[in-house]
Design brief:
184 residues; alpha+beta; single chain; Chorismate lyase; globular
Length: 184
């Protein structure tokens, strides 16, 4: 069967137009994350731009399950000894009832205030909002499209990053798993 060039061109255009918006949307999403030190701030901005909620407010819901132990590598990246306490927080960040990401977070409680530690233990406030007054910066260690081993199915983008105080000390290592709900 011979296919007309016009049909072939129309078919190819249809395929590209179906694939391009999602890819372009993922690129816009990635750019929004890269432009912020706080993933929470980036997600709230994205939530508002996409009309997921008005007002756009990200909440952190604890996920149950076994805590991932901090490896020697994580402790080294955070600049703590094996004897120094670390906390682990595993949450699902959502906005307007839409699950945007799952986050694994190992943090150094001694580098936070008592009130910050209390909020992290007892509230649905995301880590980035709790520590915003510390004027932290984000050092991206890795980013990949798709899931890292710590991420659930349906992850379209995963990040690994260190959050640092202005003096350079690390306060948190995060693994963020961004879901496909961000692209709808």
């Amino acid at each position: 069967m011979r296919v007309s060039p016009l049909f072939a061109l129309t078919f190819c255009f249809a395929l590209v137009s179906c694939a391009t918006p999602r890819s372009a949307l993922l690129e816009r999403f990635e750019a929004g994350l890269a432009a912020q030190d706080s993933a929470t701030a980036a997600l709230e901005s994205w939530c508002g731009q996409r009309g997921f909620a008005d007002p756009a407010r990200v909440i952190a819901a604890p996920l149950t399950g076994e805590a991932l132990a901090a490896s020697a590598r994580i402790r080294a990246q955070l600049g703590v000894t094996a004897a120094e306490p670390l906390k682990y927080r595993h949450v699902r960040l959502s906005c307007g009832g839409r699950a945007l990401s799952d986050a694994h977070n190992w943090y150094v409680p001694a580098r936070l205030t008592a009130e910050m530690n209390r909020q992290l233990e007892t509230s649905d406030i995301p880590f980035g909002k709790v520590i915003a007054s510390l004027d932290f910066t984000r050092e991206r260690l890795a980013a990949q499209r798709g899931a890292s081993p710590e991420c659930p199915p349906g992850t379209v983008l995963s990040h690994r990053a260190l959050l640092r105080l202005p003096d350079g000390r690390a306060i948190s290592l995060v693994i963020e798993c961004y879901g496909k709900a961000n692209l709808h």
